[in-house]
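Q: I'm building a small set of examples for a reading group on sequence design. Run inverse folding on the following structure and report the sequence directly after it, with nothing in between.
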């Protein structure tokens, strides 16, 4: 592990534990199983105040977290959550640590979507699944006891990419925007000459080599589409208010920096978190790394404002 990054002792322990599950195999299924074992090691017990159900929306498997404390008299706010994992690994279980916590701490319904993964299903499949779930939520909101006007969209890493792409597609189709978008160390298709690409080329938990690998698998043909790489959009006006959190020691850091600036300059309300002391994927350490816990609290505060 590179030692030139000034990380806290707690962060270093988190990184070491995460890396202990790494495998050298190029086989995607082997990598997925290793990723799942790592996620299982960090997943805490779910909050007890939730009803959790699995079903499908628009043919996409989803998991719904509904707090017991929601008022039966009023339609609930909701967050559609799209997990990270380079569009290649991850599922409903991998981010249960976050989706369950968000539902409990926001007192809101959280819907996690299990979009199809690359390389078996490259772009635009994962994007299409995410957009289809969004549309299904709007259509079935009444049945699900959620308020169609108070649904935010959120995601980390590749999930942040998908969340941003859904907002762009809705705007381009003249449809209503989410109540807000929360993008956590998102991959947004920034160019290779961004400063963070060279400054953090060998950063722990996501290097430039790994970033290029995942990007090739997801979008081997068309990386110019803004729905594949949202920084390619020609116009950023009319998009949902955004909370964008990056990680200081992450080659993707400047994707979020550039996207926040593009949104702000286009008149979109934004809130930016620089993720000081964080590496890519470190939100998973929120229970043991103070700086990860701090950005999680800022995320929940931002989502609460967006859903208000």
């Amino acid at each position: 592990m590179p030692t030139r990054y000034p990380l806290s002792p707690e962060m270093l322990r988190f990184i070491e534990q995460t890396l202990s599950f790494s495998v050298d195999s190029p086989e995607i299924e082997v990598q997925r199983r290793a990723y799942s074992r790592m996620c299982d090691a960090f997943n805490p017990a779910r909050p007890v105040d939730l009803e959790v159900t699995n079903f499908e929306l628009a043919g996409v498997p989803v998991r719904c977290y509904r707090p017991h404390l929601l008022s039966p008299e009023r339609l609930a706010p909701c967050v559609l959550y799209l997990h990270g994992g380079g569009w290649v690994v991850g599922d409903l279980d991998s981010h249960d640590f976050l989706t369950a916590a968000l539902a409990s701490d926001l007192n809101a319904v959280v819907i996690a979507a299990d979009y199809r993964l690359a390389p078996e299903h490259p772009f635009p499949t994962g994007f299409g699944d995410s957009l289809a779930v969004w549309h299904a939520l709007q259509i079935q909101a009444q049945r699900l006891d959620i308020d169609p006007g108070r649904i935010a969209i959120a995601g980390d890493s590749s999930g942040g990419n998908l969340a941003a792409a859904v907002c762009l597609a809705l705007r381009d189709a003249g449809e209503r925007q989410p109540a807000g978008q929360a993008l956590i160390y998102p991959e947004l298709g920034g160019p290779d000459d961004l400063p963070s690409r060279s400054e953090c080329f060998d950063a722990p938990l996501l290097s430039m080599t790994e970033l290029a690998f995942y990007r090739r698998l997801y979008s081997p043909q068309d990386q110019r589409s803004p729905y594949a790489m949202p920084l390619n959009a020609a116009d950023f006006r009319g998009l949902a208010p955004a909370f964008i959190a990056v990680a200081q020691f992450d080659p993707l850091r400047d994707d979020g920096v550039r996207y926040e600036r593009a949104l702000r300059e286009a008149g979109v309300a934004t809130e930016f978190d620089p993720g000081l002391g964080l590496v890519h994927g470190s939100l998973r350490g929120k229970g043991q790394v103070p700086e990860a816990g701090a950005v999680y609290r800022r995320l929940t505060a931002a989502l609460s404002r967006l859903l208000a």
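Residues 9-307 form a domain with the Rossmann fold fold (CATH 3.40.50.1820).
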